[in-house]
Amino acid sequence: MEVHIKRNFTKALLCLVFLTAGAAGARAESAPEARSADTLQAQVVASIDRTVPSLGTEAGADVFSPESASDMAEILYYDKLLSTGAYCPSSYDAEVSYSASNREDISCSNAFAQASGPEVPVVVNRNVKSFISYFQRSGRKHFERWLGRSQTYMALLRNTLREKGLPEDLSYIAFIESGLNPTAKSRAKAVGMWQFVRGTAQKYGLKVNWWIDERMDPEKATKAAARYFKDLYGQFGSWYLAAAGYNAGEGRVLRAMKKHRTEDFWTLASYRRPLKRETKEYVPKYLAAMLIAKDPKSYGFELNPGESLAYDKVRVQQATDLRVIAEAAGTTTEEIKRLNPELLRWFTPPDYPDYEVKIPAGTAQQFEENISKVPVQKRVVFLKHRVANRETLARISKKYKVPASEIAYLNNLGRTRRHGIRLRPGTVIFIPVRAGMKSNNTLADTVSILEYQS
């Protein structure tokens, strides 16, 4: 009896808040729109019907426990989303089969969805709640680490997506892709905060080679991800399907849509095939991460104050040692590496004219003044190797543990098909390692970038 009273009380409370938030707008709507609002309200109440029994209905429980209080906070948070038009009941919430006839009622296109600009609809169903629970419990340590990184990177991600005309909430995809780790690498050889594989990265304008991997540049990778998401949304017309396509590839999602004759992600996820479990869980995991990250305290997380990533960008005309850049900017080599995780070597890429290197905010003028005083021949120093009798480029590559293709590039030796040919004895070639490195080659000495360019 008491449980029944609590359920009715909670329903009444939420309905009251709902009606208060939406009454003014609803009165101004036409009759069909008012009916749509009534339908939405009924769905919310139905969703609460299933949620409230967990609030203190365990055997012998006749009062709200601390666990119940957290559930109540969750319900009130859903209501806050509803009042702003961001909450969308789904077919999973209503626990009914999804069909074209009820699609309009359970979509976000209702009288209260009046968000300005593009938005990702927020669905809270049992799958999303399951991941919320996971992040609060066994996945807590990981999520706390992600939240810590969010202080550094989220402003950059949101601003970049907004500038590209995309929903800022897509930034939370990076939470579940990499935990906002710009140097993350997967077993599938996906790299960076947005976990691009090489082919997709290059398709969207990122350079990936021995010198540099722009998948690890948070700014450039986010711009590439924005272009990719724009293409995916243009193809699917749904942010959920776009997210699924980002995870599984467009082809797999298109085949699933064709096989099951639906354009609804939740319906596709209800089938065993062809979407893999990882893809089925991708959207609810993303939504759970977004809900928590937007309001950590409501879910029991503490967000310690931190500073957003800030830097100046300066151009370097040629390959330049990171130590030289650090000294010119008045900082450390470690800080330059932290700001430029895409740089794989100890110098900026030689095949990238006017490369923009990131330095601490406020140091651009100091850098320009100092770098102009450094002679060109001292900005980077490579090793010089004199070719021995019967020595091949492949053997030299193995000796210095440097790809033959990169040695060939520095010395204008042509493409990889020439790596196995013998070089003329006595020829001097340049190796992309810092001068002074210990070597078994007694004829090796140093050469400046000026000599290399000449």
Can you characterise this structure?
With 454 residues, this protein is mainly alpha-helical. It has four domains: 1-116, no CATH class; 121-306, Lysozyme; 311-375, no CATH class; 380-453, Membrane-bound Lytic Murein Transglycosylase D, Chain A, CATH 3.10.350.10. It contains 20 helices and five strands. The strands form two sheets. The protein has a three-stranded antiparallel beta sheet. A two-stranded antiparallel sheet has the order 1-2. Helix 11 crosses helix 14 (277-294). The longest helix has 26 residues, at 2-27. The radius of gyration is 29 Å and the shape is globular. The relative contact order is 0.08. Mean pLDDT is 76; it is low at 1-6, 15-117 and 437-454.
Structure, briefly:
The protein is mostly helical.
Question: Could you list some keywords that capture this structure?
Answer:
454 residues; mainly alpha; Lysozyme; 4 domains; 3-stranded antiparallel sheet; two-stranded antiparallel sheet; 20 helices; 50% helix
